[in-house]
Design a protein that fits this description.
Elements lengths: L4 H12 L5 E3 L2 H10 L1 E5 L2 E6 L2 E3 L8 E4 L6 H5 L4 H4 L3 E4 L6 H8 L4 E2 L2 E11 L2 E13 L2 H9 L3 E4 L3 H22 L3 H8 L3 H13 L7 H10 L7 H8 L5 H12 L5 H13 L3
Helix pairs in contact: 7-8, 7-9, 7-11, 7-12, 7-13, 9-10, 9-12
Length: about 280
Amino acid sequence: MGPGGIGGMVAGRLAAAGQDVTIVASETTAAQITARGLSFTAPGAPEAVSHPDARTYLTEPVEVLFVAVKATDLLPALQRVPAAVLGNATVVPFLNGVDHLPLLRATYPAANVVAATISVEATRHRPGVVEQVSEMNAVVTTDEAVAELLGKAGIDASTHSDEDTVMWRKLAFLAPFALLTTSANAALGEARDKRGEQLRPLVREAAAAAGTRKADVDADAIEARLRGMPASFRSSMLKDFAAGRQLELDAIAGPVIRALGADNAPATVDTVRTILDARRP
């Protein structure tokens, strides 16, 4: 569900590996894929065109449902997958943040909703045309069968037994990266120059929030990674900000502020306010 950059990459790789793939998407995207197929390209590989079953609603059970919509689009997207049809399938959400897990479990009580995160740069050029931009694609999940399925499709998938560690390790990195670049309206290098004094407190607050869930997160390693990443790197939130799209501010910053309280997350709160103020007409 959601064949954008991430969902399209997963669908394209699974189809190329010989799996039966069903895509649930909007009317326009479903029609494009039905008529023209799903085109997927990745570094060092030729274009692969597959012809998965594409439709606007799930009408038959599936074994695994990958959810790859934006957090801001999750609620309306769930209407496309009725719980009675999904049944006891495994649900693998690739969304930013942590709050979607309890929502999905409440929506699909018979399903096996597992924790999972994905790290990859992928983009949808237009409906049905997807490119994996980065060499790397990495998934961490609590489910061994899901890791095995993705591994056979050429995705570097590993497992970790602790759900909170899986989810918060990504968020503790993503929140500082997204908030710093978006508040500076600049790629990472320029953002470090403009607002570099905010980097450490943003990381420390995200790691402290993870600690409230007893997640195993290394704040020093996250800060070192962010200081060492290429200057040209841009977060998906920054790209959405530049394009005037809705931002995943609550999904990414909200869990940190709610876990610590606003008074104990001053850097996160200040950065969110900076971004909100920049969006005022």
